[in-house]
Amino acid sequence: MTTSELIINYANLHNGSFSRRELMQKLAGRETGISEHTLSLQLNRLVSSRLLSRTSRGQYSLPTGSLPEFLYEPSEWECNVYRTLKIDYPLLDFCIWSPRLLSSFMLHVPNIGYTFVDVEKVGMESVFYSLQQIITDRNVLLAPSADDCNRYLTGSNAIVVRQLIGQSPLTMVNNCNVPRIEKVLVDAIGDNELLFAGGSEIYNIFEYAFERNQVNRSKLLRYASRRNRKEQVEHIISVITQDDKSKKQID
Questions:
Q1: Whole-structure pTM value
Q2: Could you tell me the CA-to-CA distances from 107 to 8, 153, 188, 190, 194 in Å, in that order?
């Protein structure tokens, strides 16, 4: 992730506004490897390109009227799991998240308590066995089938190890790799662990996501293509766009 993306993420996590001092305290230092000078340069560039506004001395905000970027903020427990795995497997790509984030886009909210660790295929079994040793108070499942999900995930706080598709849309929040909204939307179309999002609910999810947040369509369709779901995504977007036009005509 670029320094500019980290700054924009920081702004989104703080309701669109922040101070330079707070930004430096959070992002500059050995842990991130970013200097104050680099942050200052990127702040100036973001202001020049109108991706940020300088509201007063040392104060910045996202431009008014722009939709915020959706950011999944991992819990402290999720961050601890992520960092522990990262120490053991520094070369593996993976992310951590809970599908409960979909509940804010749904009309009928299911009981969701489980957590995903999406990891590249070569490391799935190793991470699975490590999690079984690390986590003793919940079940750990490896790429469960649809039947397994029905049996063991409903109302569960299990951990599910899944395959991370190459070039998945990810971002870094609180030094943890988490999915961007584009990955979440595509995953919601047919993944065994996300079947609760199927049927008419998937249209609600897409519609609310597009209404409330920035959704990068090129990232969305690129990832959908890698998952052989591009036509489904394009159909859903077409339907919700048509519905939106019909609502405006009625109004």
A1: 0.76
A2: 29, 20, 15, 18, 15
